[in-house]
Structure formats: structure tokens, C-alpha cells
């Protein structure tokens, strides 16, 4: 049940976060492998990017890649969150007083993150490639021209083989291990601190989880972003066809 709940929660969140991922992908691909000042700047910052995308591609462009993104986040987070919760429930993460053991939490979250990232890597690649597709005058990065999830799977497989579906998997795993370890460990430790030092949080599990989630998500973003940039570019670049 923990695996199912983790996956469904992530898919629900994706409905709201996918437009932000579209903006992030475009900004991260802009100026790829070109010196500063020697490339076109279509997107100045997040708000400007949103304006430019809507103006040139319409409001629905903010949800590009939503289908594969839903599946990708569902797969990755069901494994990541489900395995972490299972390990916590079975006493592998906390001590006898239900306090999080730091190094165990790092190992548990890293393991779950790596497994989820590996399984979801093909979907991450397709999501990235579909989110990067843009009108010609504001396009950044290689344009793969996918029309949908199934067509993208078929195209990548027939052009590059099974290995092509897992292109960039090593970077994706490293990115997720760093992000998951930072997120889940700070989330768990934050709950411990809040419940121990503030009476308000001792009587409200919802408020405690809400505040701890903000802390965990912020730490995840700080530590994961450099690896995310590398991962996005690896997954979107053009690759040579496999030899027949």
C-alpha cells in the first residue's frame, strides 16, 4: 500500500508541478555548450519563460510531456517513497525511540532513489525530450519531434536499441540518489526536531508533515539542481544511430 500511495501522491503533484518542469527544462537547455554571450537568450527567467512559451505556443504548451511525466513520477516515487516507508516501518531507519538515525536514513533513501531512477529512466528521457519541443523561433536544445509517449518509445528503441532507452541513466541515478537522500533525510529529521522542541507540532501530524516537507523539498532542490542540469542535457542530446 505504501508503494501505491507514494506513486499516486506523486502523480497528483505532477499535475501542478509539470508546468514548472517545462520552464526548468527550457532554461537548463538554453545556451547548451556555448560560451556566455554567444547564444540567443529566449528565456530570461522563469516568469519570462512562461510568458514567451504561452505567447508562442499557447497555454497548453505549459503541460507538454504531461503523460510521460505522470508515469515517470508515479514509477519513481512509488519505488522511492514506498521502499523508504517500508524500511522505516520495519525498524531499519529509526532507533528504539522512533528517532531517525541519520546514516540509515541516507542509505535507505539513496537505495530507493537509485532503484526508482533506474526503472523510470526511459520515461524521464521521453519527458525531457517532449518538454523541450518548442516553436522554431524559441527552440533550445535538440528537437526530437515526438508526437506522443508510444511513438517516442518506438522511435528511441528502433533508432538506438534498448540501450538508448536508458541513455543518461547513470546521471539520472546519481541525481536522484542525491536528491532523495537530501529530501527524505531532512524531512525525517525535521519531523523529529519539530515534535521534540515545539508543542504545537506534537498535536498536529499534518502540520508537522507540511513544514517538514517544505524543508525536505528545499534541501532536495539545492543539492539536486547541478546534477539535474547534467541529466537534462544528457537525456535531450542527439545520439548516433546504432549500427545495423
From TrEMBL:
- This chain's protein is named Solute carrier family 25 member 35
Family label: Belongs to the mitochondrial carrier (TC 2.A.29) family.
Q: Which Pfam families match?
A: Mito_carr
Subcellular compartments: Mitochondrion inner membrane
**Which SUPFAM superfamilies does the record cross-reference, listed alphabetically?**
Mitochondrial carrier (SSF103506)
Indicate whether Nucleotide-binding appears among the record's keywords.
Answer: no
- Give the organism the record lists: Tenebrio molitor (Yellow mealworm beetle)
**One term under GO cellular component:** mitochondrial inner membrane
Per the UniProt record, which residue ranges are transmembrane? none
Membrane topology value: Multi-pass membrane protein
Q: Which InterPro entries match?
A: MCP_dom_sf, MCP_transmembrane, Mito_Carrier_Antiporter
Intervals holding Solcar repeats: 1-90, 104-193
UniProt keywords, alphabetically: Membrane, Mitochondrion, Mitochondrion inner membrane, Repeat, Transmembrane, Transmembrane helix, Transport
| Highest rank taxon of the organism | Eukaryota
Protein's UniProt keywords contain Iron: no
Amino acid at each position: 500500500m505504501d508503494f501505491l500511495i507514494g506513486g499516486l501522491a506523486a502523480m497528483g503533484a505532477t499535475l501542478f508541478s509539470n508546468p514548472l518542469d517545462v520552464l526548468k527544462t527550457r532554461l537548463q537547455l538554453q545556451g547548451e555548450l556555448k560560451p556566455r554571450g554567444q547564444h540567443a537568450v529566449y528565456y530570461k527567467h522563469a516568469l519570462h519563460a512562461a510568458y514567451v512559451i504561452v505567447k508562442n505556443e499557447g497555454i497548453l504548451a505549459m503541460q507538454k510531456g504531461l503523460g510521460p511525466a505522470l508515469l515517470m513520477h508515479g514509477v519513481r516515487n512509488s519505488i522511492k517513497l514506498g521502499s523508504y516507508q517500508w524500511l522505516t516501518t520495519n525498524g531499519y531507519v529509526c532507533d528504539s525511540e522512533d528517532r531517525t538515525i541519520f546514516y540509515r536514513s541516507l542509505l535507505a533513501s539513496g537505495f530507493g532513489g537509485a532503484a526508482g531512477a533506474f526503472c523510470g529512466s526511459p520515461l524521464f528521457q521521453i519527458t525531457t525530450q517532449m518538454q523541450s519541443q518548442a516553436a522554431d523561433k524559441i527552440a533550445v536544445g535538440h528537437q526530437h519531434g515526438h508526437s506522443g509517449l508510444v511513438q517516442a518509445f518506438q522511435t528511441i528503441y528502433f533508432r538506438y536499441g534498448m540501450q538508448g532507452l536508458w541513455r543518461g541513466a547513470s546521471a539520472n541515478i546519481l541525481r536522484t540518489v542525491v536528491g532523495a537522500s537530501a529530501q527524505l533525510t531532512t524531512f525525517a529529521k525535521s519531523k523529529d526536531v519539530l515534535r521534540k522542541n515545539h508543542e504545537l507540532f506534537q498535536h498536529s501530524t499534518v502540520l508537522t508533515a507540511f513544514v517538514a516537507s517544505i524543508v525536505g523539498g528545499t534541501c532536495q532542490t539545492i543539492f539536486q539542481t547541478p546534477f539535474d542540469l547534467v541529466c537534462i542535457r544528457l537525456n535531450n542530446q542527439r545520439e548516433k544511430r546504432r549500427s545495423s
